[in-house]
Amino acid sequence: MKNIVVTIARQYGSGGKTLGQMLARQMGVHVYNREILKLASEDSGINEALFNQVDEKLRTSILSGLMTRQYTGELFTPENVAFLSDNNLFNYQAKVIKHLAETESCVIIGRCADYVLRDYDNVVRVFVHASPEYCRQQALERGSYREKDIDKYIQKTDKYRADYYKYYTKHDWYDARNYDLCLNSERLGYQGCVDAILSYISIRFGEEKE
Fold first, then answer.
1. Is residue 106 part of a domain?
2. Of residues 4, 8, 41, the one with CA closest to residue 193
3. Rounded to an integer, what distance in angstroms lies between the CA atom of residue 42 and that of residue 76?
4. Which pTM value belongs to this model?
5. What pLDDT score was predicted for residue 177?
């Protein structure tokens, strides 16, 4: 097997992005998070700001309309009225994610990558979670939000991610069956999570890995 890709879905405050970066360093590969938005913008010619507006969240107009729109891979061209739609923005991100999985070993954070790559046999799908108290403390240590606002922000962010996942996959973001590993970062620690993923890769792929 030429490439091994690790996708990481994560609760806000669980440290999924941080341990993803740690994992990428230990594997000697790139980690892709918001970089996917830039790559999708370059590929499609659509302004990156539009991708930022719907980054792992749905607009109100979609939430009040169709309950789900399962991803099928269809891309709309500039001549199509749906070219700038949320669905097409997702489709271009998915195109980038598939290209990465086909061309290099890497770590991909969020953006339904586990579902987009569901038919790829070189993918390890990880969900990182922790207790509300732990996520709250980690979020506070970042210092970006006032203590009285942080609980609401965490709940809102996780709801955005869960709704986004449900809309494009028709699956529950929290369902362990979507993933190969569900890791509690509070109990294992970031390095413990990284070690668990690397052990899984070694056991599953053995001599096939690079």
1. yes
2. 8
3. 15
4. 0.90
5. 97
pLDDT at 207 over 90: no
Domain limits for position 41: 5-204
Q: Which residues, 6 or more positions from 117, have their beta carbon under 8 angstroms from its beta carbon?
A: 5, 7, 97, 98, 101, 123, 125
Q: What is the pLDDT of residue 64?
A: 47
Confirm whether 210 is domain-assigned.
no
Give the model confidence (pLDDT) of 19-76 as tens digits.
Answer: 999 999 999 999 999 999 999 999 999 999 999 998 888 876 555 454 556 677 789 8
pLDDT digits (tens, 9 = 90+) for 144-163: 677 888 999 999 999 999 99
Q: Which two tokens stand for residue 41?
A: 């913008």
Domain presence at residue 209: no
**Residue count (the chain):** 210
Report the CATH number that the domain containing residue 90 is assigned in CATH: 3.40.50.300
DSSP 13: T
| CA distances for 54 relative to 41, 57, 121, 128, 132, angstroms | 13, 5, 29, 22, 25
Average pLDDT over residues 120-124: 97
Structurally, how many domains does the chain consist of?
Answer: 1
